[in-house]
Amino acid sequence: MNKLFEGEYQFNLASRPNWESGASHRVTLTKYLTGLAGNRQGRLCLLGAGNCNDLDLQRLLQVYSEVHLVDLDESALEYGVQSQKVSDNPRLFLHVREITGAGQALSAYEADSVSPETDLSELIQHYSEPAELDLPGPFDVVCSTCVLSQLILQAVNAVGDTHPQFEQLMIAIRSQHFQTIVGLIDERGAGLVVSDFVSSESAADLKDVPDFQFTQYLSQLLSSRNFFHGVHPGLLFSQLKGNTSLAALVQDVEMLPPWRWDLGARQYAVAAIRFHRRSQY
Fold this sequence. Notes:
Layout: H1 3-15, H2 23-37, E1 43-47, H3 57-63, E2 66-71, H4 74-83, E3 92-96, H5 103-107, H6 121-128, E4 139-145, H7 148-159, H8 166-184, E5 185-199, H9 211-223, H10 233-238, E6 250-262, E7 267-277
Parallel strand pairs: 1-2, 1-4, 2-3, 4-5
Antiparallel strand pairs: 5-7, 6-7
Helix pairs in contact: 6-8, 7-8
């Protein structure tokens, strides 16, 4: 078994009982996804679906003709659809995928044995190439559900965050993930990138800050560099704006107001970016 993936399996297993505590997060995320469905009754793809505790699958199946769940943890996906009583729905599809295509290459490294002289160029090249996911796209809506922070954490666990090439590796992971999302979206379809970027583990009073002060509080955390590696909301927004190759493919890029995700023992601050795929004609 890939030792880096084992952490994801354990996290999914430990977070299964958090359906009730995560209700507010689930309502918010499902609201944005149903809003993107519009009147098209199109096809939805969810990357990093995991246990699906943050997704109201019954509601999504009411507004989408198909819902495709993608995750490397097959048992988590099966648990999610069974717990929400939608496992027999013929319009729901499960895809067990490692969404970077570079997981095996990354697992060859161990942080304890990686030195500053270890060359990560070959690993970075793996992430610089689009992943072949073999999914039945394109889709009308594609959503990344708090998976980018996990992908970067895998890199931290594999090579350490002090390696001279770590930032280059992190940039490659982030860029590839956005390319994957945009590449799966049909013309005039929509994307939603959802990312947890700080937790109560490093910001103990996160759960106690009043709602009316929440955005200001998060700005202070970001200013003090209290956030997960590589997922500063401003950096994520810049992937789809300005003079970038991806920016030429999208339009209506919008940063949504941040919100809280209660995961039982820990709370997270969550940011999301909503956008549409630009028509080529």
